[in-house]
UniProtKB/TrEMBL annotation:
Cofactor(s) named in the record: Zn(2+)
Subcellular location: Membrane
Annotated InterPro entries: PDZ_6, PDZ_sf, Pept_M50_Zn, Peptidase_M50
Domain of life: Bacteria
Record lineage: Bacteria, Bacillati, Bacillota, Clostridia, Eubacteriales
Keywords assigned: Hydrolase, Membrane, Metalloprotease, Protease, Transmembrane, Transmembrane helix, Zinc
UniProt name for this protein: Site-2 protease family protein
Domain Peptidase M50: 2-330
GO cellular component entries: membrane
Gene source species: Caproicibacterium argilliputei
Amino acid sequence: MFCLTILIHEAGHFFTAKACGIRVDEFAIGMGPRLAHFRKGETEYSLRLLPIGGYCMMPGEDGQDEDGNVCTDPRAFCNKPKWQRFLVLVMGAAMNIVLGLILMGILLGQSSAFNSVMISKFSSHSALQSAGLQVGDSFTEVNGYRVRTDKDLSFALALANPDSVNIQVKRNGKLVTFQNVKLNTVTGSGGKKTTQLDFYVQPIAKTPLSLLQKSCADTISVVRQVWASLAGLVTGRFGLNDMTGPVGLVQVISESASAGLQQSFWAAVENIVYVIMIITVNLGIVNLLPIPALDGGKILFLLIEAVRRKPLNQKYAAMVESAFFALLLGFMAIVAVSDVMRITTGHGIGG
């Protein structure tokens, strides 16, 4: 399934390159030793051992040919207009997000109605009702996190400290804020308190238009969650133990499937499709980060080239990319070790 998201990503690069007249020498899924391959036309298609990425090998990506000389091939990547190179680089991530949108639509299509963010009624002994919220209120913010969909609401409440939450709602066209709301909680087997939702939301009728709108809105919500999670890693809100890689995804998918099987086979399938949707959106967003060795880093170099109006020194650019690629592989190895520790001992490297 992880390879599926890689396939979609690399296909975005591949077909855009072909459309721009750029030669693609190799289309590879996976990294490391080659397991199988075949050639069709000018392109070799490869399946490689490690399912941690893939690539489209195009001549002139570093401005040089195979002999280390300045690449003069008119079909080389470096000799195409900047807007075409930009499209080739960005379309991998774009295709991942498009796949996420399609999968989201498939999942939502199984529902008879959709959730809104407007309160329709409260449970008995509702903490939110006691705090002053009313039927008809629509959530707009939770602890400063903008709420547009029920996924935004669930994400924000899951991250909030249940003992003190700031909630903003829209009531009769006006914004009303409630400070330091204490939510009802349940205590898990590990002693960790989690928020217990004590309200219901107004349903949205399912129509072809509402399905399309909801699919787009929920996909955007997942993109925002990825960005918020990445920001949390930078600020220290999340640690290494909150991350997972391909190894940990095996456990995540297994647990999701098992939870779904307690209801039905199709519930398990839906859970797995949801995990794939999360993976593909994550892959798309992470690849756009301005880090050398990722697509975002190459886009950054391209933007610098456009501002300078001359190519970067490819020798130094290649050195920077190689260094960051080594750091990226090292980081992936650490995450993999943490995943194994979490699966075997219950605790990753981060504790």
